[in-house]
Amino acid sequence: MKKSFKMQDLECAHCAAKMEQAINKLEGVEKATISFMTQKLTLEADDAHFEEILEQAAQICRKVEPDCRIIK
Amino acid sequence: MNRRQKHRLYRILLAGLLLIAAVLSPLEGWLRFFAFLLPYLLVGWEVLKKAFLNICRGQIFDENFLMSIATIGAFLIGEFPEALAVMLFYQIGELFQSMAVQKSRRSIAALMDIRPDYANVYREGQLIQVDPEEVEIGQRILVKPGERVPLDGLILSGSSTLDTSALTGESLPREVGPGSSIISGCVNLSGLLEVEVQKSCEDSTVSRILELVEDSAANKAKAENFITRFARWYTPAVVFSALALAILPPLLLIQSWSLWISRALIFLVISCPCALVISVPLTFFSGIGNASRQGILVKGANYLEALAKAEIVVFDKTGTLTQGNFAVEELCPEGISPEELLETAALAECYSDHPIAQSLQAARGRSPEQERVGEIEEIPGHGLSALVDGRRVLIGNEKLMEKFALPCQASPKPGTLVHIGIDGRYAGYIRIADQPKADAAKALRELKGLGVKRLVMLTGDRKEVAEEVAARLGIDQSHSELLPQDKVKQVESLLRSKTKAGQLLFVGDGINDAPVLARADIGVAMGALGSDAAIEAADVVLMDDSPAKLPLAIRISKRTRGIVLQNIVFALGVKIAVLILGGAGHASMWEAVFADVGVCVIAILNAMRALRIKKPGKD
């Protein structure tokens, strides 16, 4: 399943790259890209665990940039 | 400016005033320290807090952390004004940067501002405005002059002209009337239109285009990936050299600690690669935004990057280089009058909707009297046989004539020949040809000028036709009489013959050449306005059917790449120069702040030039 999400308060380009790298390492993630310009996360992942993976991705984002939220 | 940015600005202004006051004041000792510490905390508190929180989360090479270390270090070695100034400028830079990014996001959004705000519908006899998302398929909407068409649909009544420039970049208005389909995003120029909605808001052309441009950011260019990888190494490398610089010379050479620590702090200030990490994707995104404004949809920064390296451009002939509508060029009767030949042919083909049959009807100029025709029998791959005014008419290609043993003529001129036999006697042929598009030759010349090595044309048409068109347009190589699967094979063999860095473009109408579009390095679909299949299949979509858009796309690609390269060279050059100067003791904190924040701002401003690449220039 491939879905894209809007990201709120993504303020630093370098952080976006870090988040992207970390999300790509999650199990079940096929491909994740974060665009700083459009403030969008495109997540391609396992259908069965999509919600879980999304939650983990949100945690990663919070860890890198505390104010950043993924809008579902 | 948003609320956050305003707060930041106030703090910066206040801290700036306090800095001036502190520098001018005669305070000494601890009082002087506090005079600088107060504005420092005012402007840098957020940075210190973030740095602390991030260390707790295991994020060490974070720019907040680096700035904190650099400024705290400066305080410790007694460089109070420098410490405060670095933090102050860092914050000014951050503010400027966030405003610049916000502005460029907005200007890209403004370029793409084709989303209609409302639709006019009748509800209980009253005309009201509703959100286009609330309108269902099959409902009727009203589009007034001057309004943007909110949803794709079919015109029930009214006629008007439409401005499609927001979608195609083409300023020529399009005429529409009852029965024409209408696409969202166009602007209704003159008449009132009643439209039956055929697609929901999310499937409408406008939504699909916007989605496509936004998603394009997910396909990153090689340059972007390079910068991301580079940034991952650059920061730790600079930080460790700073550490080495602070410790090794004082220990080994027994020199003053404060001297080398202050040089190390300069390194820390420069260690953030932000100028590159922001400006490179920004440039590509601006380039994509600009292209879409001109009616060129690029589905990813990787394709925009690759377009500049086009080496072989392969064209489908019909509909791409030629107009794709056939017209009768010549009547060549034998034993009957030309009028009779055309009339007989048009009548025999009266039930066919093949383009050739339609060109016969168009040449005759009146709708066929179907009652004069009977006993139509299709002979697949050959043509057909029909009874016209009681006479047995055979109409079709050379093979049909051979089959019925009618000796037929050949023509030295290009085009498709339609042979006609009446009651067992050959009656002559009609030559039908397709015209090259008006701007095709010019577009091909421009491609050559932009560095394309080979222009190739593939067609299912006859060899004579292909060669004539190729010669007229300046095509280097043409392959004719190809079946769809042969086209894939031709493209594969061309792919093997190109250089490694060069790219192969295939340009087609995107309707029946999806496999070829997928096989090429970059598949370009032309004349795709309103064709979902073409938008789906291609990497680059030209919304209208003008070949001139192709050189324009390559030009935008080259400009964008140029700006990316300038930024990489400039940002790295300045940073490395200041690192060397700083290590040797010839640069101060001030130069370091410029190398960090100043460079970033300049790179962003440069990146935004990619938004403003104009239509074919004289350049």
Characterize the largest beta sheet of chain A: strand count, sense, and whether it forms a barrel.
4 strands, antiparallel
Principal-axes geometry of chain A comes out as globular
Strand order of the largest sheet of chain A: 2-3-1-4
- Major sheet summary line of chain B: 7 strands, mixed
Q: Give the proportion of residues in helices of chain A.
A: 25-40%
Largest interface: A-B, 20 and 27 residues
Strands of chain A, count: 4
Which CATH architecture of the domain at 300-322 and 437-557 in chain B? Answer: 3-Layer(aba) Sandwich
The overall pLDDT average of chain B reads 85
Task: Tell me, briefly, the overall form of chain B.
Answer: elongated
Strand order of the largest sheet of chain B: 10-22-21-20-11-18-19
Helical segment tally of chain B?
Answer: 21
Any idea what the CATH superfamily of the domain at 300-322 and 437-557 in chain B is called?
HAD superfamily/HAD-like
Description:
- The complex is a heterodimer of chains A (72) and B (619).
- The two termini of chain A are 15 Å apart.
- Chain A is an alpha+beta fold and 72 residues long.
- Helices cover 38% and strands 32% of the residues of chain A.
- A 4-stranded antiparallel beta sheet of chain A has the order 2-3-1-4.
- Chain A has a single domain (2-71), classed as Alpha-Beta Plaits (2-Layer Sandwich), CATH 3.30.70.100.
- Chain A is built from 2 helices and 4 strands.
- The model of chain A has no long low-confidence stretch (mean pLDDT 85).
- In chain A, helix 1 packs antiparallel against helix 2 (50-64).
- Chain B is α+β, with helices and mostly antiparallel strands and 619 residues long.
- Among the domains of chain B are: 136-199, Calcium-transporting ATPase, cytoplasmic transduction domain A; 300-322 and 437-557, Rossmann fold, CATH 3.40.50; 324-435, Calcium-transporting ATPase, cytoplasmic domain N (3-Layer(aba) Sandwich).
- Chain B is elongated.
- Chain B has 21 helices and 22 strands.
- A 7-stranded mixed beta sheet of chain B has the order 10-22-21-20-11-18-19, with helices on both faces. A 6-stranded antiparallel beta sheet of chain B has the order 2-1-3-9-4-7, with no helix packed on it. In chain B, strands 12-17-16-15-14-13 form a 6-stranded antiparallel beta sheet, sandwiched between helices.
- The chains are: A alpha+beta (72), B alpha+beta (619).
- The A-B interface holds A 4, 11-14, 17-18, 20-21, 33, 35-40, 42, 63-64, 66 and B 50, 53, 57, 59, 63, 98, 101, 104-105, 108, 214-215, 217-220, 228, 231-232, 272-274, 277-278, 281-282, 285.
